[in-house]
Amino acid sequence: MDDSNIVSWERSGEIGVLTLSNGKENYLFTPDFVDFQKLKKWTSESDLKGIIIRGLGRNFSAGADLNQLKELSKDIKSLEEKINKGKEILDFIEDLDIPVIAAINGVCFGGGLEIALACHIRIASEKALFAFPETNHGLMPGLGGTFRLTQLMGKKAMDIILNADLINASKALETGLIDYIAETKDSMEWAKNKLLSMVSDRPKEVVNYTMQAIRNAKLLNRVDALKIETELFCKLAIKMQSN
User: Fold this and answer.
1) Partner of 30 at 20 to 30 A CA spacing, among 77, 83, 164, 231?
2) Catalytic site residue 114?
């Protein structure tokens, strides 16, 4: 196991696990919650096919530690740099060519929810709770939450953010905020089985190219996305012939 700030990394076969660990609520002391260079090193392991992000214990993450945030805000330039670095970290996670699943138990608030939104799939325990409580404290989501939630839910994001709505797992599933409610008490076990069902016994190139094509469908126009899909398919076909 390797540690960076409040984040630890461990491997379970073809899967890597990023664990947030900071007290019962797993608060984020700083927007750039993980050492970026270590994260790049961990995720570049050649045999890695998927990642699960979880919180240690009963909760995923309650988001920013407000007292620490007040201290950080005394130097606005430094705070802005840390926020931009945090956004870069989440963009990096979202753009990985392997599936990333958020395994969510308990509270998933603020910055914790922004981390979960950067993952490709969100799986929650039955008792999980979600919220962007920032507006109750004179703030707003700052790690891409306004953008990602609006992409995901359209104008419903306005209600959730401005009202600081508390959303249970059933409502989160109904609105599309999460993708699955775990059929086990701990979402980690269900997330691991789900991830293995997608990547186990599949060549890493298949996983990588599929993820690239799916990302292109969101970022590129139809013509360019389909052109690259054909190129990726042909690369796999050539490899299949040589096996």
Assistant:
1) 164
2) yes
The answer to whether residues 90 and 113 touch, using CB atoms and an 8 Å cutoff, is no
- Rounded to 10°, the helix 110-118/76-94 angle is 30
The token duo for 211 is 């993820």
Mapped onto helix, strand or coil, the DSSP state of residue 66 is helix
List b or e across 70-87, with b for residues whose CB sees 16 or more CB atoms inside 10 angstroms.
Answer: eebeeeeeebeebbeebb
| Active-site option among 45, 88, 126, 134 | 134
Active site residue: 81, 114, 126, 189, which one? 114
- Structure-block tokens of residue 37: 């260079």
Kindly report, residue by residue over 96-149, the tens digit of the pLDDT. Answer: 999 999 999 999 999 999 999 999 999 999 999 999 999 999 999 999 999 999
- Note whether 172 and 129 are within 8 A (CB): no
* Catalytic residue flag (residue 134): yes
